[in-house]
Fold these 2 entries.
Entry 1:
Amino acid sequence: MIRVILPWHLRNLARVDSEVMLDVSGQITQRTVLDALENEYPVLRGTIRDHVTAKRRPFLRFFACEEDLSHELPDAPLPDAVAKGAEPFMVVGAIAGG
Amino acid sequence: MSGVRVLVGTRKGAFTLESDGKREKWEVNGPHFGGWEIYHLKGSPADPDRLYASQSTGWFGQLIQRSSDGGKTWEPVGNKFVYDGVPGTHQWYDGTPHPWEFKRVWHLEPSLNDPDHVYAGVEDAAIFQTTDGGQNWTEMPGLRGHGSGSKWTPGAGGLGLHTIVIDPSNQKRMFIAISAAGAFRTDDGGATWKPINQGLRSQHIPDPTAEVGHCVHRIAMHKSRPDTLFMQKHWDVMRTDDAGESWREISGNLPTDFGFVVDVHAHDPETIYVVPIKSDSEHFPPDGKLRVYRSKNGGEEWEALTKGLPQQNCYVNVLRDAMAVDSMDACGVYFGTTGGQVYASKDGGDSWTAIMRDLPAVLSVEVQTLK
């Protein structure tokens, strides 16, 4: 199972308390993980990726294994530790505002 | 007993305030969607328990929320706003073409007789509609496809379609306003639109009387006189009596004719309200005094309404969607400020009370008169 940690607002929106566990088939990439996430929680469509371009929204970041994966290609494999469920894939809201 | 429900959108959430017909004690419900910007929420005239809210942030984009119990509970509905066809470009601040990009929903206008039919005014400026209670939204492309669309330029606050007014005598006729393109009218249910800006004069554009390019802040109509509209423009308060074919200025003796809101008394179509703001450089009331101005003769002659409003050291703003009226026998008038107050008058503006204080900055105020 793939572990995903969402920011507070999206956890509220999806009505989940803690990290999300996803059953993702095939290669584990940003795209396949986020596709599975949106299939499980359709309310999240458009909140992480743009509806049309499927690009990451500008003020969000993707972290895993203490690395910033935000600029990796969406079809690049995620780290093995994420694929094996040892580490979570984190959707993080950028620090901004006052 | 009849009552009143006030719907307040703020920079950090939505609130509903309910009172009985006396309008003295208010029950506060909220915050809903805490931490999110609620540009607007509004109830259906056909079903007052059906509410819609525009919820957004820069982080997570746009959501639309729907309530079927008067705002006690909410459910997210469709949030996919995709421009029709190839979006094309509008004019950017520097004069270059800029791709049309959806940013947020500024205004939600439920149709007058179907709670599942709602219009949405969005930034970058376009009008969308849903006929299934918000699950699916489609653009009405005739507006953006109007010949001038590629020349529309955003105002400082963005290229937002912020005002939608439906003619209750002929619902195929609607009026909309865009910053900074101007006012437009459809007579065929939104298939085609025409600019209705003749008589407007705006010094901030190269041709002050151009067909489009005017920064219209708000338009208001009384349901009994759908050909008469009142407009608060960037500068100037305006009036038309021929459905926008021509406008004339009615600023009269206002201390400043810059401002954002304008509204009409529920029972007297010649009584109108504005809140003068010092200037487009200083978005607060003149002299630190928060004053609503009322005209009882359709403009030109205005009186300051101050009783109950702060008359010193007040530097709040009142944004374009933040004034509304109820239709109780004694018309109530309501407005919200960027300082987080919601002021109400239950005597047509003669006196005011803060029915809510210390909210986040108020973006919108709507009122439902409940039977």
Entry 2:
Amino acid sequence: MSFTEFLLQYWPRLLSGTGITVAQFLLAAVLGIAISLVMGLMKLSENRLMRGTAITYIEFFRGTSLLVQLYWIFFVLPLFGITVEKFTAGYLAVGMNIGAYGAELVRGGILSVPKGQWEAALALNMSPAQRMRRIILPQALVNMLPPWGNLMIELLKGTALVSLISVTDLMFEARQINNTTFLSAQIFGTALIIYYILARFMVTPFMRWLERHMSRKMGRS
Amino acid sequence: MPMTPIKLSIAAGLVVLGTAASAIAGPLTDRIEAGEPIRIGFSNVPIWGYPDENGEAKGFVNEIAIGILAEMGITNIETNVTDWAGLIPGLQAGRYDLITGGLYILNSRCENIAFSEPIGSMGDAFIVPAGNPMGLNNYQDVLQQGAMLVAPAGYNTIEAARREGIGDDQLMQVPGPSEALAAVRAGRADAAALTYFEADYLAEQSGGTIDVTDPQDLPEWTLNWVGIGFRFNDTDFMEQFNAALADYVGTEEMLASVEEYGFTASHLPGDRTAEWVCANR
């Protein structure tokens, strides 16, 4: 079967799979960013309990494989009474995993803000919350955006694993089509191209735009 | 493992945590009474159980299971496709209510899930490159020639190969039958050990590049029986299922529904009970 024939026959399934992948990506990204912010800030806290919690979370989710975490949420948690629907389990696992990596990026970004900024904010009588929200975080954001671009692409590729808990994403559809037609070259080639298109033309331009936007706002462009 | 009182109470505690309130009706009966669909789990194994273009459950085990459920008056069914090796863990985790998949009743599986009475029996075969260049017809041939055998993870053929003395250096495990075919085609393995139905189907689809060996060349104890898997706490439902099964399997209606897959009267299970098969396979 030629490539164009193949595409003409299977594009609806591939499109629906891509839709699920994008949905998983966006949900996991939102969750991951939220967790990163919280955990990154907690890790910088003076309070030992908060720091300890953040360290435990980060070490656990960074130190164990995403696939094992996915399987754990899908197969093992129900045995303890916590049953999560598989789509939710998918973006939960990927989001929590990415959150652990992102927390370190947030921490690094905040620490890279010059000490003078902290002192100036203190001199201006700003409360710690105001200082963080209005002075430190915006500057930290500019610094941490480039590595975040990397992490977002990792996240996109990480969503491919949810196919193993039968979420009908792009990889799942690709494998099902392969199992019935054995057209491995066409199907996996197409999946490869789709992931590349998503990363190169969806994630990367957005991150670049965000970087430029934030630099402009900070007056550094 | 011996069920010491502590392990027993822990196991009981987990079962209580993981199941619905009622101690008498199993979770599946509760689901049916609540009007929720029965979730069938299967993988993508040609002939046995696979999804078609629209996600409908095809394959003879699915057809028979759905036929039996229809006999029981149950038509509210939801199909779920997953990795083959994830079927039993998924059933245990309550992700599915019964698993078709294409599961042989094996002792090692009987320890983890309950099986219905057998719905069929068939043997295994190898797929080899056309012409069978290494002359591999059974496990002893593979062992003596130092050939590489590939089989999907969790399949009975892996247990059979190990029983015949094939070590891990000669055994490759892949996620499913299509990967096993790809391994043989790419020359990464010299033969793939699959069930006869799959092997025959793959050889037919291959356009002459793949041959299937004769299932009679494999030892007699590789003749296996197919059952449908349930959780241990759904045995109340399973008893009703078995009653309908006894009425349905072997009827003209059933044989007509599975004719397209090559399942004939010769594959009917006869008088074997699941208990006997659990003990002898």
